[in-house]
Protein 1
Amino acid sequence: MSDASTVATVKTISNDALTTGLPNSALRTPTPVSTSTVSQNVVPTQPSFVGSIIGDNPYFQAGFGLMGLGVVLTGARQALIFGLTTLRRRMLVSLEISNKDKAYDWFLAWMAHQTQVQAQTAASSRSILSRSVPWVRSHQLSVETAFEQRNNGSSSVVFNLVAGPGTHWFRYQRAWMQVKRERETRSMQMMSGQPWETVTLTTLSKDRNLFSSLLSEARELAMKGNEGKLVVMTAWGIEWRPFGLPRRKRPLKSVVLDEGVSEKIENDVRAFLDRRQWYADRGIPYRRGYLLHGPPGSGKSSFIQALAGSLGYDICLLNLSERGLADDKLFHLLSNAPERSIILMEDVDAAFNKRVQTSEDGYQSSVTFSGFLNALDGVASGEERIIFLTTNHIEKLDPALIRPGRVDLACLIDDASPSQAKRLFTGFYDSERNADLESLGDELENTVDREMKQGRRVSMAALQGTFIRSEPEEAVRAAKELFIER
Ligand SMILES: Nc1ncnc2c1ncn2[C@@H]1O[C@H](COP(=O)(O)OP(=O)(O)O)[C@@H](O)[C@H]1O
Ligand SMILES: [Mg+2]
């Protein structure tokens, strides 16, 4: 009975018996056939023995069944995952915006704005589906505070509640979008020390064109907020970033300079801006430098701000005495100023009254005079660049600084001249409420003229201070006390 063929037969039979339930005897008939086939190839005894165990054991059989089921299920799961991934790939689109990009702030501001609009309209319309405004849902908010301290001491604060890190959902033009704001805490941006952040928008791929309309809507919103406003930027590491809130533009004619000075500077800048091609044709770097010098409170800073506003330019404010500003950073900042901006460096004499600059505590500041000159000369960058320098002491400036190419136009912005004082005065008060404004203006003009001949002057800032405090007659009288020897 240990014959291989017999064992095989038995196995077959028992298998069949199991499946069909027929008695062994009934199946003995085909034995000779199987014997003849099997006996020709010599089958080793061992596997057949194992086979008999497996074959006979119902547990193994059940195991096989389970295993089969497992395989099928695993397969199904894989297929499902694969299917979902493909579906995701084919049906969803994602857009990643990093905080290096301008669109980043626009988008967050836009989302914050939508939340506000939504809160306002929530009362009026019941169903979220019937609302025309995008529906935003976020539970994690982070605050972005914009703070502005003005010259006159007033300040304003705006808290913007924007979507915080996490996942948010909103509905935009009947499409659902997922917003994931993520923060990379392990690494910081090299120079600015800000964490990296990204916002990822995900939506169905059929709605992919909504991204661009959403982003341009966000941009428009940002631009509208800045319309008629002057954006002042400061250097953060090697980057330019808006400083405080955009300020209301100051009308150019509200800064009263001596006859023709304002026009001269404005025309020069406008002519420069019209001559881009002229510069390019001659291979001259497209840049122009201005120096406004004169006593403090004569309107230098105010004029530059008003001029930038009237040109629709931003101001990039650079403080040369700032700690940690090294030659290479300065160079980078000057060659990477945002477009349509004026670079303003105030009080350059204080930073460079000697060729080697030192700060009060004896430490040598890192911007050197030669580094500064190099940065002004710049490399052959084709970008337009307008630089304004101001100083109260032009005599302290190194002549190397005031040569064409670095400073192309230098203007004296002086203390009040007689006509300047009168123009500031008459522009300050309402002529309908003050009938004798003109004659009072003449009186002030004469006063300034008389004092000037005796070598005494008054600053425009001091005059303005008096005008703010007093009524016209009172102001003209008080102005007489303001003159000082110069
Ligand atoms: N020429 C001017 N016309 C109008 N306002 C002036 C003028 N000069 C100074 N002021 C006022 O005086 C203040 C200081 O002026 P500012 O521009 O800072 O002077 P500067 O930069 O020359 O020191 C500002 O509030 C400004 O409105
Ligand atoms: Mg100033």
Protein 2
Amino acid sequence: MREGEYFKPGDKVVRSGIYNVTHGGGHMPDHPVTCMFGKHFPKCDDCDDAARFTLISYAKDVDSEPCFKLAIGKQASSPAP
Ligand SMILES: [Zn+2]
């Protein structure tokens, strides 16, 4: 990912992680959100598609991390407590 790259509402999330949101018109301060791979960046209820998302920290989905696959599979096959 390039430095200073941002995403707009409607863009597809290509990396799960924590993103900083900058709102249009400064109606609220910047704040972090988590966005998950495969979803789309949402519109803001207030500034609509003026919101901008910049990646703060990339975080891989735990389900797609090979070292957790076995444990997740065991949880899925065991009966609920
Ligand atoms: Zn907004």
